[in-house]
Amino acid sequence: MRPDGRASDELRSIQIQPDFIIHPEGSVLISVGKTKVICNASIEDRVPPFLRGHKKGWVTAEYAMLPRATPERNMRESTKGKVTGRTMEIQRLIGRSLRSVVDLEAMGERTLWIDCDVIQADGGTRTASITGAFVASVLAFKHALKKKQINRMPIGSYLAATSVGIHPIYGPLLDLCYKEDSTTNVDMNIVMNGRDEFIEIQGTGEEATFSEEDLARLLSLAKKGIHELIEAEKSILGDLVIEQKVGTNK
Amino acid sequence: MRPDGRASDELRSIQIQPDFIIHPEGSVLISVGKTKVICNASIEDRVPPFLRGHKKGWVTAEYAMLPRATPERNMRESTKGKVTGRTMEIQRLIGRSLRSVVDLEAMGERTLWIDCDVIQADGGTRTASITGAFVASVLAFKHALKKKQINRMPIGSYLAATSVGIHPIYGPLLDLCYKEDSTTNVDMNIVMNGRDEFIEIQGTGEEATFSEEDLARLLSLAKKGIHELIEAEKSILGDLVIEQKVGTNK
Amino acid sequence: MRPDGRASDELRSIQIQPDFIIHPEGSVLISVGKTKVICNASIEDRVPPFLRGHKKGWVTAEYAMLPRATPERNMRESTKGKVTGRTMEIQRLIGRSLRSVVDLEAMGERTLWIDCDVIQADGGTRTASITGAFVASVLAFKHALKKKQINRMPIGSYLAATSVGIHPIYGPLLDLCYKEDSTTNVDMNIVMNGRDEFIEIQGTGEEATFSEEDLARLLSLAKKGIHELIEAEKSILGDLVIEQKVGTNK
Amino acid sequence: MRPDGRASDELRSIQIQPDFIIHPEGSVLISVGKTKVICNASIEDRVPPFLRGHKKGWVTAEYAMLPRATPERNMRESTKGKVTGRTMEIQRLIGRSLRSVVDLEAMGERTLWIDCDVIQADGGTRTASITGAFVASVLAFKHALKKKQINRMPIGSYLAATSVGIHPIYGPLLDLCYKEDSTTNVDMNIVMNGRDEFIEIQGTGEEATFSEEDLARLLSLAKKGIHELIEAEKSILGDLVIEQKVGTNK
Amino acid sequence: MRPDGRASDELRSIQIQPDFIIHPEGSVLISVGKTKVICNASIEDRVPPFLRGHKKGWVTAEYAMLPRATPERNMRESTKGKVTGRTMEIQRLIGRSLRSVVDLEAMGERTLWIDCDVIQADGGTRTASITGAFVASVLAFKHALKKKQINRMPIGSYLAATSVGIHPIYGPLLDLCYKEDSTTNVDMNIVMNGRDEFIEIQGTGEEATFSEEDLARLLSLAKKGIHELIEAEKSILGDLVIEQKVGTNK
Amino acid sequence: MRPDGRASDELRSIQIQPDFIIHPEGSVLISVGKTKVICNASIEDRVPPFLRGHKKGWVTAEYAMLPRATPERNMRESTKGKVTGRTMEIQRLIGRSLRSVVDLEAMGERTLWIDCDVIQADGGTRTASITGAFVASVLAFKHALKKKQINRMPIGSYLAATSVGIHPIYGPLLDLCYKEDSTTNVDMNIVMNGRDEFIEIQGTGEEATFSEEDLARLLSLAKKGIHELIEAEKSILGDLVIEQKVGTNK
After folding, report:
1. Which reaction does it catalyse (chains A, B, C, D, E, F) (predicted)?
2. Which of A98, B12, D86, E108 has the fewest CB neighbours in a 10 Å radius?
3. Cβ count within 10 A of residue D229
4. Residues of chain E contacting F181 with CB distance shorter than 8 Å
5. Neighboring chain B residues of C203 at a CB cutoff of 8 Å
6. Could you give the dihedral angle defined by the CA atoms of residues A78, A80, A83 and A84, in that order, rounded to the nearest 10 degrees?
7. Residue of D209, D223, D224, D245 to mutate for A, most A C-beta atoms under 10 A
8. Do B205 and C219 touch (CB under 8 A)?
9. Given D83, D197, D212, which is nearest A209 (Cβ)?
């Protein structure tokens, strides 16, 4: 029995509150159990210098935690004067994941800025950020469609992420909360699209290892969770996103 | 007539939601009109090196804005690698204001960390932060009382802050929203305690000036607003705070 | 009786030595008692990017202390790799104060750089910096007039600053030296122009408070001191500055 | 046919030159095709503060490239004043991978510093670094055994890493060189130990996706490559490492 | 004929004003022609960690220029967030030069901090800094003798520095002003003690070269200048310094 | 007898391995005894902003050490977030030295980047860097000639550097290894060109001094060493460099 009574293949309760902040083009507050992340998507009418004149857009992400998102207060990265390795790794992951479903050419020479700010953390902040960022991005592009900045939705698939892991006693688990995450040997973050394709697999067994059979069981759990997350996204986004291979994807 | 239909001596709608985040000892979401600030207060069982062994505590504050708290996206200070002058000025102001009502000796050798994170900005973020930080601090000390870390509430007065300014046409106004703030000549932030005493007066007339009469009118408006803010605080805090000169105050 | 024998409404001895350094367009050494600040004003033939093409100039200030301006040696900010909050607050104050009397349009697309370097500190370095910076700025514009870069003095008023405070025994005092400043409860910096108008009031009662009556007495002391400071400025600047509302002031 | 004539399941030529630099406790130059990395392992007789008194050691890694390891010169990170996200991600990966085979308790309160400096890059620098760092670490512990700092080899398994990817025309490939890496859709780095267990799987399909079947084929290729890399390690290390579950591994 | 009418072996006018700033233990304003440097020497009752318990002191120097010490305004190093290579080179030179005449053991476990702040520059700022820093240091130790912190003057020789160079037309010159320095091919800074011994020779012929004969002529000019500088020092310091090999010198 | 059995005027064994790294335009590994430096020279088709449009090139150098180039591990400068004073001093010296033999106009608007990375240190790393950088630079220009980017070799002289010092017992020594360097009183780095002219003399006697006779003996030793180093360069470079005064040299 898991600490919060869930079955091993059960997601935590998901809430996605759209239009959470008034200023961004797209904004959601996503709650996955006690983990809460404000995901804002901004559209800027220019691209970084290396892309100017290429008639395509760019997608980039930033991630941060409030100092008391966690049980112990963490020093702000602005006070430290630098961004930690963990933060950079997460924001690179969010950016790559989103770019896998965005048709950069259909965006025009614009940048989609994604800001994921964790206000309360209980494990799985990076996967909640990806799921929330996806919804915020669709809402931002919906706003751009309405303003006729673009003429079609430049997103070609649903996208969601979750974590899975192997507990020393209970075995493979879906959607780890912090307490589970800290006692679990193997930890894996999975990002998938709406066509059951993998975007990212990041599995690490620090001070532990895993076999091919373990891997198969974990991927199966993740797939189940991602199906449910995508259903939650669809209940908000309706038919804004239609599955199709987008132009810039190889 | 002000943009949002208020009278010149009318505050915006105030909401203070206690226990907003689960981890901090004290946490509120304060909304002043459309300005929304998460104020978390953390109690740490040690003091900075310069105070060790002095049998007294310390109060310090940090302030930040989410990148899309504002209509245009702002670069994160962690990405810039440094904290701006504006941020430092504000966090010094919040810290000084709180220290004016806290009995540092009654805290013991502990640090009260205040984190004010603006998630949505519409003018008056520094004064909303002070008001919210006050409530969060009382809640944090209430938590420390319950855990018997301290044996009496180390706060000796209510505390609240608001802004006032002089509009070129309508004259003196209370509680400026962003649109008013940007068209107003003189801008003043006032911090007062529950005994009608001033803690801070910061009045600046960039590209404008003000007379002694102007000053008197502005202070009178501010006093009215602060009375109402303190009523809002009392509706949440009940009788947790009793007005009295605290030990370390000169 | 104050430590140096002054009356409560008496300024320290003021000396303003013009043309102190040969390279800047305007340069003074200002001494206010034992506080000594080199104030240099430089005119640069361009403006920051955000003002380009707006046909107006910019005024910005920097402030620093030599490591041994103080009784204990302070680490250089260049060695620390960053500017402290106190320094930023002071340089923002100096810049805002000067901008209140400068007609930015009359400057043309130029930047007035003000550098205040405290070589010896005994309290009141920020107010001495403002007073010295004002004189250096007028001298710099005089130089620009002579070189026909501009065709009229773009300064529309005299400007000076002083500090006032409330001593626990002697009550309100004008122009605090360091020893007084460190034992005084309430500390206020006042900037005024030559027409008895306020530019800035920054009053703070860290670990203390003040009433409206206190405030009135402090402002009256400050006004007296600023009148005398402006007389000292006039003895150097003669009729270079004529009181008038300048164009860019609201 | 691959650019360098290899079969799809063929590693590039591997050379591991032990004792490359005279000062470190363990030092190798590893060449994987044209990719060359100096891997130095240093043993320091203390641990970071958070581990003091815990009677266990620590393993940490740093990674850098010479500016001309690449066809275009890259700016040094010391000149930039900060370490990039890519570098942090790689050094975290190297550190985690090594910790999976080291018995931290058997090390005593010591730190194993791993320095991977790429002097020539042609793809696969992070996986070559892990393989080289493993050999350097075993050599460093051999040195510590000889000096009687420790009394048994604190490494419980072989460890090696390689990359695999899916080419749009030729399909799954083992050990990508730079030219292949830049034209391949899906890129995966795999770290395994000497018992066919996974330590890390990092698969990313930026602007592409992959199916479960793709994944199975890639893992099979990786396993073949890692077997061969471990053979190369064994030819240098002889019987220094004996496969066994080590103490601190969960 | 040199720009300022000097003979080729003639120093500029030297003035050394002792007790320039009131707070430091030793303080001078040195003027060498139009070059003016405030040299402050501070004695701190502790040494850096690497020297603790070694019963000897330390001497370290910092150097900076005011932004308008030069004809064009220079950005502050605190604003840049880092100290330039030129500054570091100069402060290392000043520190090494002073250490060559100080008996570190006779200082006790104390640090002599030397701060050289150029307020007006016209060439030769680093050599003026060394000469001024020497006088400030002797005054600081005189102060420590008076306070009985030390029981003898820990300085064993006079010390002074000057620059020499080769002008394309006029040949070798002593004590280059800025205009000469910028048109001279070979530039050499020489530091000598009161016994005609060299402490430092730093000769550089950027975009030029020099022969052994050139070198001999330059050293001879430098020696003449340094004799005169030491006479100027003696007129201030009287018999405070007695020539003798000091203990810690090899 | 010196630690390694050399005569006092004997260089250590010199090896210069050309084309060490495949990517740079010029690349050598220079070994001077146990000191080993990778010297890469890169030609970039643009100049820094201050030189644009001047129809001449630029030469700049960077220097670093691997953390375990030394017996004790040194922290990386990228991890520290800044370049030390020692590094800056060395890279300025390398850059100046190279510029003394390069005809900047003959380069066209190009930058020659020199990267000296010490992989193993045993004294004399800066002089080995200069000698190695010279060879790498000639090779880089040879490559540019072959690609017809330039039409003649823009280097007008050979260039080499060595160190000399005075040992307390054995007197003047040529080419100090680390053990000698740390026990020697006076340390001097000499850079000369192929016409027996000095480029740089940097002599320092920290905690020691030297006389004119000492200087003469040291320069004579250095000259002998540099003749031999230039012979080693010639054996690699053949007749690529012809001695002649180059255009931009004064």
Report:
1. tRNA(n+1) + phosphate = tRNA(n) + a ribonucleoside 5'-diphosphate
2. D86
3. 26
4. none
5. 198, 200-202
6. -140
7. D209
8. no
9. D197
CA distance D229 to D194: 10
Please tell me the least confidently modeled range out of B197-201, C207-211, E34-38, F99-103.
C207-211
> By CA distance, what is B166's nearest residue in C?
C250
Considering only CA atoms, which of F128, F131, F139 is closest in space to residue F21?
A: F139
Neighbouring C-beta atoms of residue A82, cutoff 10 Å? 18
**Which residue from F minimizes the CA distance to D63?**
F76
pTM of the model: 0.91
Residues B129-185: tens digit of each pLDDT: 999 999 999 999 999 999 999 999 999 999 999 999 998 888 999 999 999 988 888
Give the integer Cα–Cα distance in Å for C130 and D39: 58
| Residue whose pair of structure tokens reads 């146990």 in the numeric block | F34
pLDDT tens for each residue of E158-204: 999 999 999 888 899 999 999 998 888 889 999 999 999 999 999 98
Nearest chain E CA: its distance from F89 CA (Å): 6
- List of E strands, F90-231: 111-120, 159-167, 171-174, 186-193, 198-204
Which chain A positions have a beta carbon within 8 Å of D211's beta carbon?
196-198
Give the dihedral of Cα atoms D220, D223, D227, D228; nearest 10 deg: 70
* Nearest-neighbour CA in chain D from F75: distance (Å): 10
- Chains in contact with F, where contact means 3 or more Cβ–Cβ distances below 8 Å, are D, E
- CB count in 10 Å sphere of residue C235: 10
Burial of D128 (0-12, 13-18, 19+ CB in 10 A): buried
Q: Report d(CA F201, CA F222) in Å as an integer.
A: 10
D123 contact partners, CB below 8 Å, separation of at least 6 = D33, D35, D163, D176, D177, D178, D179, D180, D181
Chain B CA closest to residue C188:
B201
Rounded to an integer, what distance in angstroms lies between the CA atom of residue C223 and that of residue C11? Answer: 11
CA pair distance E122, E106, nearest whole angstrom: 37
Token digits for B22?
Answer: 């689960």
DSSP-derived letter for residue E11 is P
Q: Which residues contact C108 (CB under 8 A, 6 or more apart)?
A: C55, C56, C57, C149, C150
Is the pLDDT at E150 greater than 70? The verdict is: yes
Q: Give the residue from B72, B117, B139, B143 with the most A CB atoms within 10 Å of its CB, the best one to mutate.
A: B117
CB contact under 8 A, E198 and F215: yes
E-strand spans in chain F? Answer: 14-18, 26-32, 35-44, 58-65, 111-120, 159-167, 171-174, 186-193, 198-204
Give me the mean pLDDT over the C96-118 stretch. 96
Is residue B188 within 8 Å of B174, Cβ to Cβ? no
Q: Do E209 and F202 touch (CB under 8 A)?
A: no
Amino acid at D42: S
CB pair distance less than 8 Å for D202 and A202: yes
Chain D residues within 8 angstroms (CB to CB) of chain F: 21-24, 27, 34, 38, 40, 42, 44, 62, 64, 66-71, 73, 76-83, 87, 113, 115, 117, 119-121
| Nearest chain E alpha carbon to F196 | E211
Question: Cβ A44–B117 below 8 Å, yes or no?
Answer: no
